[in-house]
Write a structure and sequence with these properties.
CATH superfamily of the largest domain: HUPs
Bound molecules: adenosine monophosphate, tryptophan
Number of domains: 2
Distance between the termini: 25 Å
Shape: globular
Order of helices and strands: EHEHHEHHHHEHEHHHHH
CATH class of the largest domain: Alpha Beta
Number of helices: 13
CATH topology of the largest domain: Rossmann fold
Strand order of the largest sheet: 1-2-3
């Protein structure tokens, strides 16, 4: 077995790539590639658990894959979940080790089913939404990943994955699956600049997230209109809006600017307009690099798709091997 530890993470092809996702997940994924054997997956099967438009699903998956490549994910580490059908087959098997009671307690299921009931014209909630964590567990276990880089909101799903892997190991009498651990990022919560009490998110609407591929003027405009003081911050504490702007500077690795502006803040001489300019410059700088790479990638979309299909096929070999071993262990018949 290779000596490098393995990493798997997934991201749904819904919504845009904004700076919350970028700093909270993707830029961390990029850095981890130096140390670990990484598997990164656009989880299109998971995107089907909520109402979706078939005509858009595939295009959204390719679009996100291209965005991830532009952000610096190596093509050989990236694939689209449905390219590796073994995930769904393992997911059926793992269902038999998953506790119905534990699935019922998953907060993401409770939140999303409430959301579906509020927004939908009917109150349809798919069984797949309930079963979502089992497929996520299969994504992770099929590569015997040691670490799963995710945001805090996914902690419960990783814990669930450990539980079903443990049950499987106990029942088969083998330490077969690696028990994965969540790996939290340095910036687990980037807030919306329009409402710094809420997480930057695609689903809150345009003004609540800054798209990493937006043109520089739009980025500057969004940062300039960032909420700083809401008037209800207790004396002596930093308001969430200002704190978020400092976090963004840190996330952009602008330590010097961060420290000097923080010194101004502590001295009571900080001008918010200076802080905002520094943040806008830093975000635009990152965005320009990504936009440049995306332009190159989209100039030959066909080549990129071919490249990803090739990595999907290579990654599939790992999944196939695990599935064969699992089928042996649980008494199923392997095909030729
Ligand atoms: P989602 O946007 O919920 O599909 O999440 C994709 C990944 O990005 C997950 O690992 C999240 O934890 C992370 N993420 C999404 N929004 C933010 C945010 N505002 N701050 C930090 N991380 C985020
Ligand atoms: N549930 C994750 C999210 O909402 C996405 C995901 C699917 C995932 N499969 C995964 C994350 C496997 C980590 C590992 O963000």
């Amino acid at each position: 077995m290779e000596s490098k530890k393995r990493i798997l993470s997934g991201i749904q092809p819904t919504g845009n790539l904004h700076f919350g996702r970028y700093f909270g997940a993707v830029s961390n994924w990029v850095n981890l590639q130096e140390t670990y054997h990484c598997f990164y997956c656009v989880v299109d099967y998971h995107a089907m658990t909520m109402p979706f438009v078939p005509a858009k699903l595939r295009e959204n998956s390719w679009e996100l894959a291209i965005n991830l490549l532009a952000a610096g994910i190596n093509p050989e580490n990236l694939f689209i979940q449905s390219m590796v059908p073994e995930h769904t087959e393992l997911s059926w098997i793992m269902n038999c080790y998953a506790s119905y009671g534990q699935l019922s307690r998953m907060t993401q299921f409770k939140d999303k089913s409430a959301q579906a009931q509020e927004s939908g014209s009917d109150d349809f909630i798919s069984a797949a939404l309930f079963d979502y964590p089992v497929l996520q567990a299969a994504d992770i276990l099929i590569y015997k990943a040691h670490y799963v880089p995710v945001g805090k909101d996914q902690e419960q799903h990783v814990e669930f994955t450990r539980n079903i892997a443990q049950r499987f190991n106990n029942q088969t009498g083998k330490e077969y699956f690696v028990l994965p651990e969540a790996l939290f990022t340095e910036f687990p919560k980037i807030m919306s600049t329009a409402d710094p009490t809420r997480k930057m998110s695609a689903s809150l609407g345009e003004k609540h997230n800054i798209d990493v591929f937006a043109d520089p003027e739009r980025i500057r405009k969004q940062v300039r209109s960032a909420v700083t003081d809401t008037g209800d911050t207790p004396a002596g504490t930093m308001s969430p809006g200002v704190e978020n702007l400092f976090t963004l500077l840190n996330a952009c690795k602008k330590q010097e600017a961060h420290d000097s502006l923080m010194a101004d803040y502590n001295a009571g001489t900080l001008k918010y307009v200076d802080l905002k300019e520094a943040v806008a410059d830093a975000l635009v700088g990152i965005s320009e690099q990504l936009r440049e790479r995306k332009k190159e990638l989209t100039s030959d979309r066909k080549a990129v798709k071919e490249q990803l299909k090739a990595s999907g096929a290579a990654i599939r070999e790992h999944a196939r091997l695990t599935l064969r071993e699992v089928k042996e262990l649980v008494g199923l018949v392997n095909p030729r």
